Amino acid sequence: MNERRPTSPPSSATGRRRRGSRTRDRRGGRHRLLWPGLAAGAVLVLAGGLALKGATESAGRPTGTAGASSATGRPGSQEAGETAEAPKDEATAEPEKEKERKRGQEEGRDPGSIPSSGPGTFATADGGGDRVGGSGRTLTYVVQVEDGIGISAQRVAAEVERILADERGWTADGKVGFRRVAGGTSDFRVRLATAGTVDDICGRYGLDTGGEVNCNVGQDVMVNLKRWLLATQYYADDVTSYRALIINHEVGHFLGHGHEGCPGPGRPAPVMMQQIKGLHGCRTNVWPYDADGRPVTGPALR
After folding, report:
1. Considering the entire predicted model, what is its pTM?
2. What are phi and psi of 25, to 5 degrees?
């Protein structure tokens, strides 16, 4: 996967950015299959186009690790296993659009009604949470939701807290801890925003999220509203789990973890695997550790 290192972003109110590992370009490919016919003298030619998902979830976006962020020395990244999809044949694209429509209806939103852009300003969830995790360093974070998208910052904060507190999450190493705060100085920010705002913030670090994917740059974990509401084809029936994958993947980049591949057929996909590009024989999985506290990993990818 080609990687593009982001240049330092212009100074702005939005801050810093993310994981290259993280995200992600995707590349698409097309395969043509020729099958000989059984009838004498007849040859049946089947042409099929397979759109392969790109590295992090953006069509035509840069894959993988971008340059290190000035704040953390970590690579900027495009999403949690999420990269925008490559263009598809009309025959392939229509069924996927139909799946997104149904997922949107189940979530109480038609994909067509999800705003694609917003003001770029954010509301921060009030209050704070208890510290969760091991006895080592405590990372503080705020949860913010872009204004005007009709989603409660408090509701998103509750979901993010639940994910980061799960015993299968990053705290399973017994060292790192997390605590949500309502303002002031924090180590990182989880920000749910429209595709246009995600593209803008990630783009300041040289990442092309293509209106489709998430990214982590600097101190910001940027969550694309479309992905938050609709997930992807592999999690079409479990949007809640997909949200855990987004948070764990992007926070994983913030913690310094790079992308990983499938460790073998039938085994759980690592949370740092770009699952949107395909499972490659692995099973879906959204947690960095299993129920017994063992890390779920795979071969490191460049």
Report:
1. 0.68
2. -80, 160
Sign, Cα dihedral of 8, 190, 58, 273 = positive
CA 296 vs CA 12, 176, 260: distances in Å: 37, 17, 10
Average pLDDT, stretch 58-82? 39
Give the pLDDT score at 99.
Answer: 54
> Which of 99-103, 120-124, 226-230, 233-237 has the weakest average pLDDT?
99-103
| pLDDT tens track for 205-264 | 999 999 999 999 999 999 999 999 999 999 999 999 999 999 999 999 999 999 999 999
Encode the chain in three state secondary structure.
CCECCCCCCCCCCCCCCCCECCCCEECCCCCCEEEECCCCCCEEEECCCCCCECCCCEECCCECCCCECCCCCCECEECCCCCCECCCCHHHHHHHHHHHHHHHHHCCCCHHHCCCCCCCCEEECCCCCCCEECCCCEEEEEEEEECCCCCCHHHHHHHHHHHHHCCCCHHHHCCCEEEECCCCCCCEEEEEECHHHHHHHHHCCCCCCCCCCCEEECCEEEEEHHHHHHCCHHHCCCHHHHHHHHHHHHHHHHCCCCCECCCCCCCECCCCCCHHHCCCCCECCCCCECCCCCECCCCECC
For 264-291, write each residue's pLDDT tens digit: 999 999 999 999 889 999 999 999 999 9
Pairwise CA distance, residues 277 & 297, whole Å:
17
